[in-house]
Amino acid sequence: MKQRLQISKKADSLAIQSEETQFQSRPSTNKTQQHTNKTLSQTDIENQEFQQNQIEATKLQLQAKHGTITPEGQTQLTLLQAKMNDVLYSRVQQGYGFGHNLGQIAFRHPEKISSSGSPSLVQAKLNISQPGDQYEQEADTVASNVVNQINQDTIQKQQTSQTATSQNEAGNVATADNSAANPKQQFLNNHVVGKELVKGIDENSPQEKILEQLLNNFKNISFKYTMTYKQGTTLLTGTREGDCRTLAEAFQTVAQEYFGIPNVTIEQIKKPCLSEADETVYQGRKRNCDHGKRWFFQNHYWASWNGKIYDVLFLSNKPLQVDMARQENPLKSMLMPEGEYYETEKGKVVYPRGNEYLTVELSMFEKLKNLVKSLSSLMSRNLDSITNRIRDLLTRGGNNNSDFESLITEVQKNRTSVVTQNNQNQ
């Protein structure tokens, strides 16, 4: 029984001799099967089964040595060792080994390579020895090296993955921290047009110069002037359209929130007005009155700082010159079938025609109104014809006074003729 236990101990030691013993002993048997046509003997079958058990047991021993074996694996290892011990003990008792002699079992040793480059054979002799001899120590060393290499590769991959994850998390935290710590960067991240507006501006310049450069940068943002209000923040975030108020609010937001310039205010003209101002640099609506000669605004907005004007619509520091208009009692009559007209402080009448406005001198407009009123009772038969001619003149624009004077002269002649005819009939 003691001899059987010692044989079992040595078999376990031989089983973990090297990593190559685990994975190179199998091809040897397969090649033998591929290159022979002989029927395998019972001994050959037992040898193959022993080698398969040996390979599986070695794997489980490595796991057990490093504490990674499962309870099922431990049970399987015990069964495999018992099977191999029985085979070894049976062969010793019978006096022959695997194939011919137990001492002729061939193993490949990773460190012993012949001069021809092919692995040399090492005779693994079955000797009864004390635990911890040089063969068992060598097997333990090889097994430890194999497992350590596997563990090192696994640890390295885990460390690489953890490092990458940590770097990504650190990068995200750093970005968030930088945005929180740098309000200007956060402002630019949230306002795509804001990046274009602050481009090229030296933040160390005097505030007045910064505002001048900011005003000048508005010409580069591809803004579309629609004469329809949108909030200034919508422009800064990418909606590049709106009216003069949209532009003024965007100017104020960048000046205060990015450059930190306080007291930038929004001012306005609240009432309708007529202006001789030039065209804007923006695409979209052009001058909308008298066929592109003037502007007519319902209101107008601009930014102001320290008493200085920043009119972003016209990119100007000058106040807009306007002719204020009033509309206290809108007139709806045969002269203004579309509806309302506006009287300006400088003596013009502004009235809508389609998508634009036209003007006529107030004095001429009053003459036409009075003429129509005075003729209505005397010229009922020709009143529609005269009204249509007046409307035609207004549609073409009332800036050619000679046309109106000609019409009034013609109407007055007709009136005199009618009066004379009536007197003769009486």
Task: Explain what this protein looks like in three dimensions.
- The protein is α+β, with helices and mostly antiparallel strands.
- Helix content is 53%, strand content 14%.
- The protein contains 13 helices and 14 strands.
- The chain has helices at residues 2-15, 19-34, 42-65, 71-94, 134-181, 183-190, 192-198, 207-217, 232-236, 244-258, 362-375, 383-396, 401-425, and strands at 106-113, 119-123, 224-225, 241-242, 265-269, 273-275, 283-284, 295-297, 300-305, 308-310, 322-326, 342-344, 348-353, 356-361.
- It has a 6-stranded antiparallel beta sheet with strand order 8-6-11-12-13-14. It has a 3-stranded parallel beta sheet with strand order 4-3-7, covered by helices on one side. Strands 5-9-10 form a 3-stranded antiparallel beta sheet, covered by helices on one side.
- Helix 2 runs antiparallel to helix 3.
Low-pLDDT stretches are 1-37, 96-129
Number of helices: 13
Proportion in β-strands? 5-15%
Question: What value does the Rg take, in angstroms?
Answer: 52 Å
Q: Pairing-aware structural class of the strands and helices?
A: alpha+beta
Proportion in helices: 40-55%
- Taking all residues together, what is the mean pLDDT? 74
Distance between the termini: 165 Å
Largest sheet: 6 strands, antiparallel
| Count of DSSP strands | 14
Order of helices and strands: HHHHEEHHHHEHEHEEEEEEEEEEHHH
Q: Within the largest sheet, what's the order of strands?
A: 8-6-11-12-13-14
Based on Cα principal axes, name the global outline. elongated
